[in-house]
UniProtKB/TrEMBL annotation:
This is Outer membrane biogenesis protein BamB. Residues 1-28 form the signal peptide. PANTHER family: CELL SURFACE PROTEIN, OUTER MEMBRANE PROTEIN ASSEMBLY FACTOR BAMB. InterPro entries: PQQ_b-propeller_rpt, PQQ_rpt_dom, Quinoprotein_ADH-like_sf, WD40/YVTN_repeat-like_dom_sf. Residues 293-318 are annotated as: Disordered. Keywords: Signal. The keyword Calcium does not apply. It comes from Rubripirellula reticaptiva. The keyword Mitochondrion does not apply. Residues 96-284 form the Pyrrolo-quinoline quinone repeat domain. It holds the Pfam family PQQ_2. Residues 301-318 have a biased composition (Gly residues).
Length: 457
């Protein structure tokens, strides 16, 4: 693995509620990014002191790593080590780097590499999911459905499960992209089809739980955990829309079809207080649901099936949760493709494919569009939030914008552009790995290349 470091002199200078999101504890440091979309799976980085504005040339590069393989996996960072996935012509592999230097620590093959017979490679092949780090284990999912647990310090494979062969799953049109949710002793994954969602024992990979009553294809959403009263649930989305399953019984707690579509449902839902927000592209728009405790018993709430919630209408399942649609908006509103959105002080920020593709701020409570900003043509963008700033990454040319989040308009505090892009062919694909912020660094990947910028205050 080749590395390019900043000059030594430069490095010396640089060194100077009723509903809630339930997450399993990670053995992570104060400034770590241990899983997909950060410590709480909401796009927010851990608390750390970062530069509020950047010089005209952007922040300095701390290190650059090469030869990470193809794929769109972003990174997880825990206790000074960075974890990601890549692939070459024969294998899909997990990689561990020293987060301070970019030097290789270990590399472990977890499955064969995918090919065009497995799924549509027209937008690029390779793994899409982010490793989840919890305790002394690294949990990864390959693009063809191999789930593996690795020893965190050495990369040694502890166990592997093929979710297609074991659970009758079907590889999605553009490969498995879900990032695994660890909930205590469980590893939650979505094979799709009749065994739509299952949970495996983290010690040996045996099945300990599964969803009931839903036969839907796996799409590209990473699940989160929430609770209403005494009812805890895993919520994800697929072709029929949002689906939430009781963590104990596996019964469908509620569903909503507003953001479902037949092409690709990708963004991760957001839970805030007693509200659940979700958005997707292909005309789906966005929805805000109000979730309240119904007082019904877990076994007597009626029969709910996948996709029963029609557009703009939530549907109770077999759990004690009442669902009310606050709004469902489509057209010239937030229609997020795959870059995700973040919620900051009551405002949803992200990139919408509406209006030719623009960055957008949307009031969470009302759905009102507050402002739009166009930064390029025909692209998309991913987003993260850290220490009072938005990190808005435009996927066409590797530009990242540091933005002050506010309700009045786009306020730029700095920007950068990747010094180089990959030479690997990505066909119709773009720079789709999301940026992460950990240990005072902004870390961006483009296929086999990874760049770490020093953004510590």
């Amino acid at each position: 693995m080749k590395l390019r470091h900043a000059p030594l002199s430069l490095l010396v200078c640089l060194l100077g509620l009723s509903v809630h999101l339930g997450l399993s504890p990670c053995s992570a440091g104060d400034t770590d990014w241990p899983q997909w979309r950060g410590p709480n799976r909401d796009g927010h980085a851990a608390k750390q002191d970062l530069m509020k504005s950047w010089p005209a040339e952007g922040p300095e590069i701390k290190w650059q790593a090469e030869n990470l393989g193809r794929g769109y996996s972003t990174a997880a960072v825990v206790d000074g080590r960075l974890y990601t996935l890549g692939a070459d012509a024969t294998d899909c592999f997990a990689i561990c780097l020293d987060a301070a230097t970019g030097e290789s620590v270990w590399k472990t093959n977890v499955s064969r590499a995918s090919n065009g017979d497995d799924y549509n490679h027209g937008w690029g092949g390779g793994p899409r999911s982010t490793p989840t780090i919890d305790g002394d284990q690294v949990f990864v999912l390959s693009d063809i459905g191999t789930l593996a647990s690795l020893e965190r310090t050495t990369g040694k494979v502890q166990w592997q499960v093929d979710i297609v062969q074991s659970f009758g799953g079907k590889i999605p049109m553009w490969g498995y992209s879900e990032s695994l949710l660890v909930d205590g002793d469980r590893v939650v994954v979505t094979p799709g089809e009749s065994n739509f969602m299952v949970a495996l024992d983290r010690k040996d990979g045996s099945k300990v739980w599964q969803s009931k009553g839903s036969d839907a294809p796996a799409h590209y959403v990473s699940p989160i955990k929430g609770s209403v009263g005494e009812t805890s649930f895993y919520v994800t989305a697929s072709k029929p829309g949002l689906l939430a399953f009781d963590c104990k019984s596996g019964d469908l707690v509620f569903s909503d079809g507003s953001t479902g579509n037949g092409v690709a449902v990708i963004p991760t839902p957001i839970i805030s207080g007693n509200s659940l927000y979700h958005t997707s592209d292909y005309g789906s728009g966005n929805t805000l649901l109000s979730l309240t405790h119904s007082g019904k018993s877990q076994s007597g709430a009626g029969e709910g099936g996948a996709g029963e919630g029609s557009a703009g209408q939530g549907s109770a399942g077999q759990g004690g949760v009442d669902v009310t649609t606050v709004y469902h908006l489509s057209g010239k509103t937030m229609q997020n493709h795959h870059g995700g959105v973040v919620l900051v002080d009551g405002v949803i920020y992200g990139f919408t494919k509406a209006n030719g593709g623009v960055w957008m701020a949307q009031d969470l409570a009302t759905g009102e569009t507050l402002w739009e900003e166009k930064t390029g043509r025909d692209g998309s963008g991913s987003i993260a939030y850290a220490d009072g700033r938005l990190y808005c990454y435009y996927d066409k040319d590797g530009s990242l914008f540091l933005v002050d989040p506010n309700r009045k308009g786009w306020t730029l505090a700095g920007q950068l552009k990747l010094p180089q892009q990959t030479n690997l062919p990505r066909d119709k694909g773009a720079i789709w790995a999301h940026p992460i912020i950990a240990d005072g660094m902004l870390i961006i990947r483009d296929q086999d290349l990874m760049f770490a910028y020093n953004i510590a205050e």
